[in-house]
């Protein structure tokens, strides 16, 4: 993918996640093909939790790469993001 394509994909999936997340209810499930292709009911809350965890893991990887390159990494805490949004 080109950088432009990646940016577009991130915007699309990010917007979709933001729209989807508040609608997830505690008992909502979805059928997924599990590791051995066996259909399995999975709570949507688990999928939402994994999406958040996965994003956090990638942010940590990026921070480590920037540090290794000698680049001061930005403050990626949620509070910093909230503070910047409210200015």
Structure write-up:
This protein is mainly alpha-helical and 87 residues long. The protein has a domain at 44-87. The chain is built from 3 helices and 2 strands. It has helices spanning 3-20, 44-68, 78-85, and strands at residues 29-33, 39-43. It has a two-stranded antiparallel sheet. A hairpin with a 5-residue loop joins β1 and β2. The radius of gyration is 17 Å and the shape is extended. The N and C termini lie far apart (34 Å). The model has no long low-confidence stretch (mean pLDDT 91).
Rg calculated over all Cα atoms: 17 Å
Per DSSP, the total helix count is: 3
- Widest sheet, order of strands: 1-2
Instruction: Give the amount of beta strand, in percent.
Output: 5-15%
> How many angstroms separate the termini?
34 Å
Question: Topology, please?
Answer:
Blueprint: H1 3-20, E1 29-33, E2 39-43, H2 44-68, H3 78-85
Antiparallel strand pairs: 1-2
